[in-house]
Specification:
Radius of gyration: 31 Å
Strand content: 5-15%
Helix content: 55-70%
Distance between the termini: 93 Å
Structural class: mainly alpha
C-alpha cells in the first residue's frame, strides 16, 4: 500500500513537473499570472502540485526537518494514544497515513498532522460511558469518531463553509484549551507520581506511591522542561524515552511492580472499515464529533495562520478543511483516532527549516522506519515516562496571564472566557459543554451588541473632528439641532434602537427643529432598516423637522431609492462630506441670527 502510493505520486510529479515551480528556491503556494487555467485548477484541488521541484539541496533541508519532527512524534503519539484510551501503537498509526494524506491535500503542508493531546482528551471524554477504555468497542467507536469528523470536515471544506469556524472567538478557545490542559495534567498525575490508589494509604502512607515510578516520571518531566528551554530542536523526548527504556530493563522495573507499556504489535496497520455502530450509539457520537471537528480545526487554524503569515500568503481555510478531513478519514481506516495539527510540532517544523510538504514525507518515512525498529524498545518504557511526555507537552498551554490581559482589553469577554473555563472543568468528562457554552455566550454577547448599537450625539472638537459631545463636554453643533452618529449597520437588529433613540431625544427636547445624521459608519441597510428610515423621515417632515444627512454611502442610498425614497425630497438635505454639512449648519445658524 505504501509503495503504490509512492509510485502514484511520482507519476503525478512527472506528468505535472512543469507546474511544480522553479526549483528549491521557489516559494510554495505562489501562482504565476501566466499559469494556464487547467493547471491553476489542478493546483487548487491537488495542493501538492504547488510543492517546489525536489532538488538535492532542498531535500537535504527537508530531510532534517522531517527527521526532527518524526523523532518527536513517535513517543508523543504513543503517549497521546494512552491519553485517548487507545492501544499505544495506534498513536504511531496516526502519524503515518493520516499525516501523509493531510500533507498532500492541505493548503498548508508544513503543518505537522497527527496525534494531539487536546484531540485525544476529547476522544476520551466523548467515549466516556459508551465503552471501556482500551476495549475493542472503545477502539471501534474512536475509529468512527475519526471517520465522522473527517467526513464532516471534508463536507464543510467542499461546500466552502470554513467561515462557520469563526463562531468560536479567541477568548473562548483559549479558555477551553487551558481548562483541557488542566484536565489532561490531572489525568496524568497518578501515573506521573506512581500513585497506586487509596487502598495502599491505609497500610503505609509511602506505599500509596510507587517510588521508582515517581522518579522516572518527575525526572523525565524535569529533563524535558529543561531541554525545551535550552535546546528546543534536540529530539529530547525520543532520547528520554529510549534512555528510560534501557534503565527500566536493566533495573527490572516491571518485575519490581512498575507499570510499563508492554508488548506492542509490529508492522503496518491494516486498512479496514469497522462495523457500523447502532443508531443510538451514532446519536451519542454526534456531539463529540461536532466538538472534535470544531476544536481540531481551530488547532489547525492557529498553525496555518502562522505558516501563511511567514510565507506572506492568504490562508485557504476551505482547502485545509478538506486536507484535514481526508487525514481523519485515513486515520479511521488505519485503525487510529482523530488527528489534528499540532501547534508545537508545526512550530518545530518551521524552526527546523522546512520549506514545503516534502518535510512531511520525510517525517512519515522516519515514523515508518521506527514502526519496525522502535517497537521492541517501547516494551520496557515506564508509563510514568509517557505521563511526563504528555504533561510537558500541555504545560505550555496554561497561560493565566492571558486572562489578565483580556480583562484589561474587554471585561465582558474576560468573564465569558472565565465562565468557559469553569464550565469545562465542572462538566468533565463531558468537555463539549464547556466549548458549547462559551460559543453560546459569545454569540449572545455579539447579538446584544448588534441590538444595542453605539449611537452618540456629536460635537465639534477643537482638533476639527466630530466626537462624543457628552464625553468630551462639547457644545451642540448648532442651536435646536440634534447631531447624531450611529456606528453600526442600519439593519433589522439596529433599526428599532435607531428609531427609539431619535424619538426619545425629540420627546426630551421639543425645541429641536433639525436633525443631522452623520451616516459615514452606516455601510449597510436592509429592508427593515429602510422601512424604519422612511417611516421616521416622514414623521420628522410632518413635525416640521429638517433632516440633514452627511456621507450616505452609495449601497445605502441605492437601497433607500429602491424602497421609494426620493433624493430631492422636501424634508431632507444631502451632503457628501462632513465639511459640507458643518458649513450648511453654520450658514443656517447665521441666517437665523440675522
Amino acid at each position: 500500500m505504501t509503495y503504490a502510493l509512492r509510485i502514484d505520486f511520482n507519476v503525478i510529479v512527472q506528468t505535472y513537473g512543469d507546474a511544480l515551480g522553479g526549483g528549491a528556491g521557489a516559494r510554495p503556494y505562489t501562482q504565476s499570472a501566466t499559469v494556464p487555467p487547467m493547471t491553476a485548477r489542478l493546483r487548487t484541488y491537488l495542493p501538492f502540485l504547488n510543492w517546489p521541484r525536489p532538488t538535492a539541496r532542498l531535500l537535504r533541508g527537508e530531510a532534517w526537518a522531517g527527521l526532527t519532527v518524526g523523532l518527536m512524534v513517535i513517543p508523543q503519539g504513543v503517549a497521546y494514544a494512552v491519553l485517548a484510551g487507545m492501544p499505544p501503537v495506534t498513536g504511531i498509526y496516526a502519524a503515518l497515513l493520516p499525516a501523509l494524506v493531510a500533507g498532500l491535500f492541505s493548503a498548508s503542508p508544513r503543518q505537522s498532522v497527527g496525534p494531539t493531546a487536546l484531540c485525544c482528551l476529547l476522544v476520551s471524554a466523548g467515549l466516556s460511558g459508551l465503552a471501556e477504555p482500551g476495549s475493542a468497542e472503545w477502539v471501534r467507536l474512536a475509529i468512527w469518531l475519526a471517520l465522522l469528523s473527517g467526513l464532516l470536515q471534508l463536507a464543510l471544506g467542499g461546500l466552502r463553509f470554513g467561515w462557520l469556524l469563526n463562531l468560536v472567538n479567541a477568548p473562548v478557545l483559549a479558555a477551553f484549551t487551558q481548562a483541557a490542559a488542566l484536565l489532561i495534567i490531572a489525568s496524568q498525575l497518578p501515573a506521573l507520581t506512581g500513585w497506586q490508589g487509596p487502598g495502599h494509604w491505609q497500610q503505609d502512607a509511602w506505599q500509596a506511591w510507587h517510588v521508582p515510578s515517581m522518579v522516572f516520571g518527575l525526572g523525565t518531566l524535569a529533563l524535558l522542561l529543561a531541554a525545551r528551554r535550552l535546546r528546543p530542536s534536540l529530539p529530547t523526548v525520543l532520547l528520554a524515552v529510549i534512555a528510560a527504556a534501557g534503565v527500566s530493563r536493566a533495573l527490572g522495573f516491571e518485575a519490581a511492580g512498575g507499570r510499563v507499556i508492554g508488548t506492542l504489535p509490529a508492522g503496518l496497520p491494516e486498512l479496514a472499515l469497522p462495523g457500523l455502530p447502532s443508531l443510538d450509539t451514532l446519536r451519542a457520537l454526534l456531539l463529540p464529533t461536532l466538538v472534535i471537528t470544531l476544536v481540531s480545526f481551530l488547532e489547525t487554524a492557529s498553525s496555518a495562520k502562522a505558516d501563511n503569515a511567514q510565507l506572506g500568503t492568504r490562508w485557504n481555510q476551505d482547502q485545509d478543511l478538506i486536507g484535514q478531513g481526508l487525514g481523519k478519514i485515513a486515520a479511521g481506516l488505519s485503525g487510529a483516532f482523530p488527528t489534528s495539527s499540532s501547534f508545537s510540532r508545526s512550530a518545530l517544523t518551521l524552526y527546523a527549516g522546512a520549506r514545503s510538504g516534502w518535510a512531511t514525507v520525510f517525517s512519515v518515512g522516519v515514523v515508518l522506519l521506527a514502526l519496525w525498529l522502535f517497537i521492541p524498545v517501547l516494551r520496557h518504557v515506564p508509563q510514568a515516562v509517557l505521563a511526563a511526555v504528555v504533561v510537558a507537552a500541555v504545560l505550555g498551554l496554561i497561560k493565566p496571564g492571558e486572562f489578565l490581559r483580556l480583562w484589561r482589553m474587554a471585561r465582558v469577554e474576560a468573564c465569558i472566557a472565565g465562565a468557559t473555563l469553569l464550565i469545562t472543568l465542572a462538566a468533565a468528562p463531558q468537555l463539549y459543554w464547556g466549548v458549547l457554552s462559551g460559543v453560546l455566550m459569545s454569540l449572545s454577547y455579539f447579538l446584544y451588541q448588534r441590538l444595542h448599537p453605539r449611537i452618540i450625539e456629536v460635537g465639534l472638537h477643537p482638533d476639527g473632528s466630530l466626537r462624543d459631545r457628552h464625553l468630551w463636554k462639547l457644545p451642540p453643533l448648532a442651536p435646536k439641532t440634534y447631531a447624531m452618529r450611529m456606528d453600526a449597520a442600519l439593519d433589522f437588529a439596529a433599526a428599532s434602537e435607531f428609531e427609539r433613540n431619535v424619538l426619545e431625544f425629540l420627546a426630551a427636547h421639543p425645541e429641536v427643529r433639525q436633525i443631522c445624521l452623520f451616516a459615514q459608519p452606516i455601510n449597510h441597510i436592509d429592508a427593515t432598516g429602510a422601512d424604519v428610515f422612511l417611516k421616521l423621515s416622514r414623521q420628522l417632515q410632518a413635525q416640521g423637522i429638517l433632516l440633514h444627512i452627511s456621507g450616505m454611502k452609495l449601497p445605502v442610498e441605492k437601497t433607500l431609492l429602491q424602497a421609494g425614497w426620493q433624493l430631492d425630497g422636501a424634508g431632507h438635505r444631502l451632503y457628501r462630506t462632513e465639511a459640507e454639512a458643518l458649513g450648511a449648519l453654520a450658514a443656517d445658524t447665521q441666517s437665523a441670527q440675522d
